[in-house]
Design goal:
4-stranded antiparallel sheet; Jelly Rolls; alpha+beta; single chain; 9 helices; 188 residues; globular
Length: 188
């Protein structure tokens, strides 16, 4: 919870008094490596801040498990569309390491909005940051060759590379695991 408090203070200048309001409605949770926080076909019941750990957003397409996005500490997990609409998600979010998150249910989010209305603007800003990060990750994948993709990944996401299976990295980069292994040898 302390890391989420720090995140809100650093990014939104949240006071200790307002933290006391928010902290009543959030809960720390552990997610084990391999566990799905969001599962395709099920309603997303919580949104969460990642205090420790790495997750991947993945989808099944034509029978293939495709990694679309990585998120780690100081990031957020969940499917906002499913969370707010209560419709089953079309996404999966899987923990790639053991993780500690700070989660909130929709009912508790509404309670925070009632007791501390500025939190709604904070959530909008967080949503915007998450979308921009997603767009940044996807943008470089669409306009680069395999070598450039891998070099960009090394530069921007070195903290992920050492913590997740290479098959997921290869899937994210849109290359085979053999191509990734070859690139790693060439660039090392």
């Amino acid at each position: 919870m302390d890391l989420f408090k720090k995140y809100l203070h650093d990014n939104f200048k949240l006071s200790d008094e307002n933290w006391q309001i928010i902290s009543q409605f959030i809960e720390p949770m552990r997610v084990s490596k391999g566990e799905y926080f969001v599962q395709q076909g099920k309603v997303c019941r919580r949104l969460a801040f990642i205090a420790e750990g790495v997750f991947r957003l993945c989808m099944e397409r034509d029978g293939l498990d495709i990694t679309c996005y990585f998120v780690s500490e100081n990031g957020f997990v969940g499917d906002p569309d499913s969370f707010y609409s209560r419709k089953p998600s079309d996404k999966n979010m899987q923990a790639l390491t053991d993780a500690l998150i700070v989660g909130i249910t929709l009912d508790n989010l509404q309670k925070i909005y009632s007791e501390y209305p500025p939190f709604k603007d904070m959530i909008r800003s967080i949503d915007h940051m998450v979308v921009m990060d997603l767009m940044t990750q996807r943008d470089f994948l669409q306009h680069a060759d395999a070598r450039e993709k891998y070099q960009h990944f090394l530069h921007h996401y070195p903290h992920i590379l050492q913590r997740v299976p290479l098959g997921f990295v290869a899937s994210f980069l849109g290359i085979t695991q053999q191509s990734l292994s070859r690139l790693r040898k060439e660039i090392s």
